[in-house]
Design brief:
Elements (H helix, E strand, L loop, with lengths): L2 H14 L8 H11 L2 H7 L8 H14 L11 H4 L10 H10 L1 H10 L9 H15 L4 E6 L13 E4 L2 E3 L7 E6 L14 E8 L8 H9 L6 H16 L3 E4 L2 H11 L6 E6 L10 H10 L6 E6 L17 E4 L5 E7 L5 E3 L18
Parallel strand pairs: 1-5, 1-7, 2-4, 4-11, 5-6, 7-8
Antiparallel strand pairs: 2-3, 8-9, 9-10, 10-11
Helix pairs in contact: 1-2, 1-3, 2-6, 4-7, 4-9, 11-12
């Protein structure tokens, strides 16, 4: 793509991005500043294909601050200075100064890192989907997460779930995930889920959770106001570190067929992906879908996804309100839930036209 056109597209992306950062006043204030700053937009043309520019840029700046860079920009980050953080509205000129001073470091991070935000609460969505899978098949299931990042969802059965005033999962779990239930009737029994026979992740870049800099990158991708999400992430990374699941390195397009062949023939498998297909370059998405479907060659496949409606599996999303959907071995898409991108809330599908209760715009990264 011609450089000028790409810069214009990036400017448009940042101009529209405040709507995405629902829980980050700081990033909402800074998006228009980046949209107007050509030198910073130029840096972003060096990112890897498919990477979402605003998540990557803000992750890179946050990473440098978390690593100890001393710059007045840190005073605007609740993740660094707590509730005393300065007003987001004043951060623009400070960000521009930061971008000039740390241009080389930002450029290196933008060129080499991936948006790997591991949102622990998305395990709530997976847990819900497992309950539905259990209604369709008997016995243990093999769990595969495509785009697993550090793999926190692969331990979906080790967390406590606090949903709609009910608690599910082991009472002694060290990680508790609270999520608001927007249904008019209580949530279903999330203890009624099939056991997990094996767990396997697939990722372009599996994260070594024992490596401090790798953990810092994941931490940097959490928006600075979301301190509860950062605390959950640290706790879940410790759970992963204590018993790391296998995560196969590579592009899902190449790796998924091998992963499918390695599973015991005839046994049910659940393939989950969240905020992953949206980062696959558009021209590769059909191959990505075929690779996932190939896991069903060796046994009944239950494919569950939490992706924005703009990136549905195989273009076949039956209901654009359902950001959590699945299909079983018959291939028929079952819309499951409306969910916030970070799973702060979830709710059953309401009839079209009925307002969503307090949900705001769903974010996903
Ligand atoms: C935004 S993160 C989401 C992580 C996790 N699914 C979650 O919801 O917390 C997307 C992950 O997908 C991985 N990814 C993107 N494209 C991929 C591909 N083609 N094959 C394998 N992994 C991919 C990235 O490396 C990254 O770890």
């Amino acid at each position: 793509m011609a450089a000028g056109r790409e810069i214009d597209q990036l400017a448009g992306h940042f101009a529209a991005a405040p709507a995405t950062f629902t829980t980050s006043p700081l990033y909402r204030a800074l998006c228009p500043v980046v949209a107007e700053d050509r030198p910073t937009l130029e840096l972003l043309t060096g990112r890897r294909p498919g990477q979402q520019a605003s998540y990557l840029f803000f992750g890179a700046a946050h990473y440098l601050l978390l690593a100890g860079v001393r710059h007045p920009l840190r005073d605007f980050y609740p993740s660094l200075v707590g509730p005393a953080a300065a007003r987001p509205a004043d951060a623009g000129p400070v960000l521009l100064d930061f971008c000039r001073r740390y241009r080389a470091d930002l450029g290196e991070l933008i060129r080499t890192r991936l948006v790997q935000t591991n949102v622990v609460r998305r395990a709530v969505a997976l847990r819900y989907a497992l309950r539905i899978v259990g209604q369709h098949c008997a016995g243990p299931v093999h769990l595969v997460e495509v785009g697993s990042s550090a793999g926190v969802h692969l331990h979906v059965d080790r967390y406590r779930y606090l949903v709609g005033g009910r608690a599910f999962g082991p009472a002694d779990a060290v990680v508790s995930l609270d999520s608001r239930w927007l249904g008019r009737t209580p949530p279903p029994d999330l203890d009624d889920v099939p056991p997990i026979a094996s767990r396997t992740g697939v990722d372009l870049n599996p994260v070594d959770v024992t490596d401090e800099t790798a953990r810092r990158w994941l931490r940097a991708l959490v928006w600075p106001e979301n301190r509860d999400a950062a605390t959950l992430l640290e706790a879940a990374l410790d759970v992963v570190a204590a018993d790391p699941p296998a995560v196969v390195a590579g592009d899902a397009v190449e790796v998924c067929p091998e992963v499918g062949r390695a599973l015991p023939p005839g046994e049910p498998r659940v393939v989950f992906h969240a905020a992953t297909r949206m980062h696959v370059p558009a021209e590769q998405r059909s191959a990505f879908d075929r690779a996932i479907d190939s896991i069903g060659d060796g046994g009944p496949l239950y494919h569950v996804w939490q992706e924005p409606p703009s990136a549905p599996h195989g273009g076949q999303l039956a209901d654009a309100r359902a950001e959590l959907a699945m299909h079983g071995p018959d291939g028929v898409v079952l819309p499951l839930l409306r969910v916030d991108g970070h799973l702060r809330w979830l709710g059953p599908l309401e009839p079209p036209g009925r307002p969503v209760d307090g949900s705001g715009v769903a974010a996903a990264d």
